[in-house]
């Protein structure tokens, strides 16, 4: 399930304050839900229930964390409570301990949930990649982006993204090509960082990346255990706020077994997204469908059968305006 995501972050609110200001005390139903989540988990459900019970928007939670000397982006907090990421780095664990105090929770109530194993496959997810593996990949991705000095908000807004995926004779994902139309929302933007998450069993060290149009390849980082590849594509110009830019790149994979879906993740709303998947003539699936998912932890939704062109052996979807979350195409071989 190759998966790439774009991230956006929000500025911290810096108004002075002397303590945690929450909404009204939670009612019996909310309190019972929070107690149940703290006792049974998982972590993201407990965190979401605790934030809701205290009536704090994420910007305020972020500000309280900064007063504790911990820097965490609003997007990271959102991903934590959605289950799209799982805090594991030392700084992230410091933030979780601070959250227990900020949200007025018992000591160790959130930390202990992070220590519990979670290898279950949520309903609706095909076998092959577990929820735990996705969370591990998210943490690895965060580390690789830090290594590339890539901020969560890359300074670009996507106006259009057209993606073409090719499936080979052995049912493997051979390659994907992406063309982006973007607009800068701050001065000085001169690069884009792309993420490729290969299928289980892939070998990122044998993958290659190619700058196809109006860019050149910069640094590339790979992580074998999670199948994550991160590549930097450099522009030949520095964009000013409001400038638009068009560029394209490709990733050659072909290192894993049979693929059963292709998913694209979006950290923020954007413009049009079009995805086409083309199959080798000797490996054509029996049916294809579109689906969405709010986060890796959520079940699939909005399932819709898609017509497969037998002549061109291709299937596609078009999202006129993407929302935060995940959208993809899945297929059945038998």
Give the key terms:
334 residues; 33% strand; 14 strands; 6-stranded mixed sheet; 2 domains; Immunoglobulin-like
Strand order of the largest sheet: 5-8-3-2-10-13
Order of helices and strands: EHHHHHHHEEEEEEEEEEEEE
Distance between the termini: 18 Å
Structural class: alpha+beta
Radius of gyration: 21 Å
The proportion of residues in beta strands is 25-35%
Q: Can you tell me the number of structural domains?
A: 2
Mean pLDDT score, rounded? 82
What's the total count of β strands? 14
CATH topology group of the largest domain: Immunoglobulin-like
Major sheet characteristics: 6 strands, mixed
> What is the subunit arrangement here?
single chain
Total number of helical segments? 7
What does this molecule look like?
The chain has seven helices and 14 strands. By secondary structure, the protein is α+β, with helices and mostly antiparallel strands. The chain folds into two domains: 28-115; 132-332, Immunoglobulin-like (Sandwich). The strands form three sheets. A six-stranded mixed beta sheet has the order 5-8-3-2-10-13, with no helix packed on it. The chain has a five-stranded mixed beta sheet with strand order 1-9-14-11-12, with no helix packed on it. The protein has a three-stranded antiparallel beta sheet with strand order 4-7-6, covered by helices on one side. A hairpin with a 5-residue loop joins strand 2 (156-167) and strand 3 (173-184). Helix 1 runs antiparallel to helix 2. The two termini are 18 Å apart. 35% of the residues are buried.
